[in-house]
Give the backbone structure.
Amino acid sequence: MTIRRTTLTAAATLLALSAVAACNDGDAQSAPTAAGAPATASATPTATATASATPTPVPTPTPTSTPTPTPTASATPTGAPVDATGAFDPAVALANADRTPYAATETMKTTATAGGQVGSVLAGTGRVNYNTPTREGRTETKMTLADSDEPALWMETVNTGTTIFMRDRTKPGSAWRAEERGDKARADDLTVYVKALVEAGPAARKGMEQKNGVPAYHLGARLTAAQVKAIDPTEYQKMVDKGVDGGKQIDVWIDRAGRVLAQTQSMKMTTGGTAVTSTIALTYTDFGPRETFSAPTTAAAG
């Protein structure tokens, strides 16, 4: 079956921009329309962020150095007790999870496919704070479409905690643009799906595995639309708006301290009569103490 490029590109762009918003935070952030995508394609973040119109440019902040934070390895996690084989109970790990803010390197890859054809690949990485209200961090995300190696989208984002700065790297010399975060508080709890999967029963418990070189417990199940609605009504509404069919497959891997080491989300939707599958895979490594992310400057914007 041949899928029309415009249909697949539109769906791929929608999913990709959703992942950008989710990865980069952005209670109110925007991103450019990818090449070849219809002008009406809009982003609806995968997590709890909400996209908005392009912010009004503001003057460049007073120059200060903005070195990229260096990941700092953390000590061996404590938390749930382990047995002789190193296994632990994920419910105990979750119940005793430390809520102290911490930083981690977040790596994300999103693919959108239809009829066996890959519509887009979106890859992103960055350093991000967790267990914080505003999810400060610095990330970079690049998307390529199936018929081109040139990035259709290439965004760099800095979230200082009070302001979000973005620039479009597909445009040489593109300036940073900034906007206030406003009064919205972003829910950044990575364990929300862990809790849902623990409560899903024995079938969701897949057992111990190695993840990122760390002993981890794998939980996985397909959550129905009703279950997603109970967890996060906003996300549920976005799934409805995107035409998601049959809920969402969620898999997470946690360490004994209750930290999420990796997660994948897979969902199917119908766009223009075409069934599209979106898969998002995220990993979290190099755990360390909370870091500070300063506003970008002219000197750092090259």
